């Protein structure tokens, strides 16, 4: 039987960024973050706790900050 660590996608732990962390990362206020989420300028939250959106993985936010070309490069080939 394989261990749980071998079944994970990455050997590094996922670093979760909560909304306040994202605000500090970009240097923006809470209303600005809400607006950016609503306009789609931030990626959809990809960390869920009890089925509710909780935050983002750090690499998701870093790819979004790098621009659309970096986000597309991380997508699997079709």
Supply Rg: 14 Å
The chain-level structural class is alpha+beta
- Find the count of extended strands (DSSP E, 2+ residues): 3
Q: What sequence of helices (H) and strands (E) makes up the elements?
A: HEHHEEHH
Whole-number average pLDDT? 80
Q: Strand-residue fraction?
A: 5-15%
User: How many helices in DSSP terms?
Assistant: 5
Largest sheet: 3 strands, antiparallel
Strand order of the largest sheet: 1-3-2
The parts where pLDDT drops under 50 for at least 5 residues are 1-8
Q: Roughly how many Å apart are the termini? A: 32 Å
Please give the oligomerization state of what you see: single chain
**Helicity range of the residues?**
40-55%
Shape: globular
Describe this structure in words.
This protein is α+β, with helices and mostly antiparallel strands and 78 residues long. It is built from five helices and three strands; from the N terminus they run αβααββαα. Strand 2 and strand 3 form a beta hairpin. The longest helix has 10 residues, at 30-39. The termini are far apart. Residues 1-8 have low confidence and may be disordered.
């Amino acid at each position: 039987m394989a261990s749980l660590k071998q079944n994970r996608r990455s050997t590094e732990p996922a670093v979760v960024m909560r909304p306040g962390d994202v605000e500090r990362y970009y240097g923006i206020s809470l209303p600005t973050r809400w607006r950016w989420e609503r306009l789609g300028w931030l990626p959809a939250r990809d960390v869920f706790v009890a089925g509710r959106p909780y935050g983002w993985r750090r690499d998701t936010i870093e790819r979004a900050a790098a621009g659309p070309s970096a986000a597309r490069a991380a997508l699997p080939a079709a």
